[in-house]
Amino acid sequence: MARFLKSLIFLPLAILLVVFAVANRHDVTFSLDPFSANDPALTVTAPLFWFLFAAVAVGVIIGGVATWTKQGKYRKEARVKRREADRWHEEADKLKAISETTNAPALTGPDQRNAA
Predict the structure, then answer these.
(1) Alpha-carbon distances, residue 107 vs 23, 101, 110, 114 (angstroms)
(2) Cα 24 to the center of its chain, rounded Å
(3) Which is nearest to 16 in space by CA: 49, 47, 46, 45?
(4) What is the pLDDT of residues 26-43, one digit of tens each?
(5) In the prediction, which pLDDT does 101 show?
(6) What are the angstrom distances between the C-alpha of 103 and each of 69, 91, 96, 98, 106?
(7) Which residues lie below 8 Å from residue 107, measured CB to CB, with a gap of 6+?
(8) Do 14 and 38 contact (CB within 8 A), yes or no?
């Protein structure tokens, strides 16, 4: 269902981007110099759709970085839980090895409550 919804949204957007790129193939000048309109120092001349695709790419990168930083607390919690689970698995393996070497049955379930 999610794949269908993504396709439903992104396919028309992709078609619009391609149509926009084909319709806007002429060169435009992008200037980063607000002080000299007649002879700008920082200019880039390229087809308009390149600027559009660059803006989309920058937006995707900024959104990805923002999402990645916002989810940092969840990644940290997952690392802590993974270490804790590894410690519990090591302890269980040690207890199992001790139980096997002494040939004592491992206590589980209701037997464990009665043994305590």
Answers:
(1) 75, 15, 8, 10
(2) 32
(3) 49
(4) 898 888 888 877 878 888
(5) 86
(6) 51, 18, 10, 8, 9
(7) 115
(8) no
One-letter amino acid identity for 59? G
Q: What is the pLDDT of residue 31?
A: 86
Cβ atoms of 105 and 99 closer than 8 Å: yes
Amino acid residing at 25? R
- Torsion, Cα 44 50 54 60, to 10 degrees, reads 170
- CA distances (Å), 41 to each of 20, 31, 44, 50, 77, in order? 29, 8, 10, 20, 49
Residue 33 and residue 41 in contact, taking contact as beta carbons nearer than 8 Å = yes
What is the token pair recorded at 108?
A: 């589980």
Residues 4 and 1: their CA atoms lie apart, in Å, by: 5
For the record, the structure tokens of 103 come out as: 């040939």
Let me know if 32 is exposed, middle or buried by CB neighbors in 10 A (0-12, 13-18, 19+): exposed
Q: E-assigned strands of 1-116? A: 27-31, 43-47
